[in-house]
Amino acid sequence: MSATVHCPLCHSDLTYPNQEMMVCSQCFHEWIPGTESAEEAGNAEGRVMDAHGNELQNGDTVMVIKDLSVKGAPKPLKSGTKVKNIRLVDGDHNISCKIDGFGSMALKSEFVKKV
C-alpha cells in the first residue's frame, strides 16, 4: 500500500484517488497531488475557502451543506440553510454570522458553500 496522503485543507488522512485527483472523505476537498503546497501557502495568506474551494469574503451569502448540531439548541442547523452577510474572523470557526431562529453563531468554512 502506498503512503497516506493528507488533505491540505483539513489535514485528514482519510483520502482516496479519483482519476488524477485526490479527494478528502471528510471535507470533500479535491486537489491534484503535488500542488497542495501552493494551496497551503494560499490559505496561509488569510484567504478563507468554502467546502468547494471558492474564496469567501465579508458580506457573502453562504448555504450550510450538512446538518450541524448546535450546542444548547433543541434542534440542529439544517443543511440548505442560507446565511446572509457573513463576517470572516480568525480562528477555528472562521465565519461569524446571525441565523434566524439561532441568533449569533460561528461556523467553520468547511461546512458551507458560497451561493
Summarize it.
The protein is mainly beta and 115 residues long. It is built from one helix and eleven strands, in the order βββαββββββββ.
Descriptive notes:
This protein has 115 residues and is mostly beta strands. It folds into 2 domains: 45 residues, N-terminal domain of TfIIb (Single Sheet), CATH 2.20.25.10; 59 residues, Roll (SH3 type barrels). Helix content is 8%, strand content 30%. It has 1 helix and 11 strands; from the N terminus they run βββαββββββββ. The protein is elongated, with a radius of gyration of 15 Å. The N and C termini lie far apart (39 Å).
The largest pleated sheet is described as: 3 strands, antiparallel
Number of helices: 1
Indicate the structural class. mainly beta
Low-confidence stretches: none
Q: CATH topology of the largest domain, which one?
A: SH3 type barrels
Give the spatial strand order of the biggest sheet.
Answer: 1-2-3
How many DSSP-defined strands?
11
How big a fraction of the residues is strand?
A: 25-35%
Number of domain modules: 2
